[in-house]
Amino acid sequence: MAGEPQSDCLFCKIVSGEVPATIVRESETTVAFRDINPQAPTHVLVIPKAHHRDAAALAAAAPEIAADVLREAGEVAAQEKVDSAGYRIVFNTGTGAGQTVWHAHAHVLGGRGLNWPPG
């Protein structure tokens, strides 16, 4: 069910503390941690603590939590000192877009030039 922890979800296991992660921020509704395969000098994932399959599902079911994820992404950028130079927030939604973990998450990328269009 949407919002409920899933026993087979890596990110739900990070939220519960079952799987370790390098946490950089935590709020009542979100957790932010370093990506284990960084694509930029700053690469942090911001996830809702509640399980939602992808960004679209999160926005439909819990728009206030989707807003929390975006707000925390901005806070991560400021904390990581990439906010003034520029940073990117990416939500991959679906296999064709590169989503590999089926729990909504935002990638905060910065610390190098980020060309357009992306890869």
Write the layout of secondary structure elements.
Elements: H1 10-16, E1 23-26, E2 30-34, E3 42-48, H2 55-61, H3 63-79, E4 87-90, E5 106-110
Antiparallel strand pairs: 1-2, 2-3, 3-5, 4-5
Helix pairs in contact: 2-3
Task: Provide a descriptive summary of the structure in words.
This protein has 119 residues and is an alpha+beta fold. The protein has 3 helices and 5 strands. The model has no long low-confidence stretch (mean pLDDT 96).
Q: Termini, distance in Å?
A: 33 Å
Gyration radius (Cα, Å) is: 14 Å
Largest beta-sheet characterization: 5 strands, antiparallel
The count of β-strands is 5
Low-confidence stretches: none
Could you spell the SSE succession in H and E letters? HEEEHHEE
**Beta-strand percentage range:** 15-25%
Helix content: 25-40%
Give the averaged pLDDT, no decimals. 96
Query: Which structural class should the secondary elements be placed in?
Result: alpha+beta
Overall shape: it is: globular
- Number of helical runs? 3
Strands ordered across the widest β-sheet: 1-2-3-5-4
